[in-house]
Amino acid sequence: xxKGSLAPILVLILLVLSVIPFTATPTQAQTGQPVTEITWKxxxxxxxxxxxxxxxxxxxxxxSSPLPQYQDLDPTVLGKxxxxxxxxxxxxxxLNPAANVIDPNGPGYVEQLDYNITGTWLPGLIxxxxxxxxxxxxxxxxxxxxxxxxxxxxxxIGEIRYALNFLINRDLIVRTIYGGSAxxxxxxxxxxxxxxPRLKHVYDDLGLTPAGDQDKAKQMFEEAMxxxxxxxxxxxxxxxxKDDSSSPTGKYWYLKKPDGSEEPxxxxxxxxxxxxxxxxxxxxxxxxxxxxxxxxxxxERERSVVTPIIYGTNPVTTSETxxxxxxxxxxxxxxxxxxxxxxxxxxxxxxxxSPLRGYGPxxxxxxxxxxxxxxxxxxxxxxxxxxxxxxxxxxxxALMEKALKAGLLRAPRVFVxxxxxxxxxxxxxxxxxxxxxASGIWTPWALRTLQTTDGKATIVEYSSQGALFMSAWNTxxxxxxxxxxxxxxxxxxxxxxxxPINGMPVPIRVKSYKVTYDVTVPDDxxxxxxxxxxxxxxxxxxxxxxxxx
Length: 549
Prior knowledge:
By secondary structure, the protein is of the alpha+beta class.
């Protein structure tokens, strides 16, 4: 059956299945049992994992995919599954804002969290591996003798970061890459977020639309380049368009250096390959080359290769893993594992636009904050840690508006899509679960309420080659990835969690519990005792449970 005839059937099925709670037929309801044993599997391919669920070799694939992922399936295969809808996965482009060259003798200063660096900031100039050569993240232009390490980073300029919002035609990406199974995300507050109706006017006021405005993006880019050129020419640099046969338009922007050498302005786009972000990254690369005339090197890799670099290294240091370069852009993907209420938009804005919690351009290492503004940082602190009640909630909304606008204008993230995705469970074996209205299978309520015909469940996770988890299993500091959280949130002793229906906190803690295990606990394994505030070798050497009550 072709895609055109299958799509209406799929839409009908998916609309029915999006209703919660997930309920079984009367026969299934009689035989369903709460799950007491879970077997986890790992697969490197989404198609294989989905077919395992359909064939009954797995009960659920704990990964959501857009509708086109299912459109080529035979209807008989599709009929063996029920699909759980979610709208809380989303994609953005992380931008490396590092431009670390200054004139120490010029006016002005570069603002940092704890101190200011005296001198004139030189727009877009980045010196690669400055910590190695100068034992400093910031470089005085008067100290540079090796011009081969000086390059031009367009996204070190705030106006160009903002212009990317207009370059991206999100509507086209939604239609051609996601097959309509997504919505344009203009910022950290996405269309399905409860705060969106109150904050949508911020996008409207800035003229941001799903279709973008590529003529405006071109004008904004060229104006920013002209402004940078006027500054850099005072230091022996130049920026100009030059004929180049390797360009799809026949020309690229070039940087000329004080020693007379020149190079095409090049950005290094790290693109994830596991899902639709591959095509998203390729499409945005094409727009940058054809409309902005900048050279794009596409570095297409899976997560185990790139995440330690993007989230764990200094943004001015080169990576041999990526070919001895400094990354410029990265296709980020996020999953919200619970329902939101409107005022919780404060956390989304603070997380993505203020350098508070790490990840990508907002590293936890303060000395890596090449993009910093004290006003926006303080707004983020107030949003993330401030105390608000019904009496001052209007102040909160006003602050959210200001911080969202500032983030759109300057921050090193540009959002692309909110994805409408579906996770499969086996129709015959899974008799009940309670997914989130928006978060679907990602909320811990879904797997905590899972019932199967025999009380056992086999769940498949989607893994990168040799690297399912992205963080150490240290629950004192918490996990950093959804792959660990899917498991960890099933055994964590939450006091409360957001309701899968409306997002309001509801009690989840049980009165008592026992955990059984059949693995040997290493002799050097330690457990933190929060009462005595020390690590203890609890359970060391034991080979079977239960423990905990």
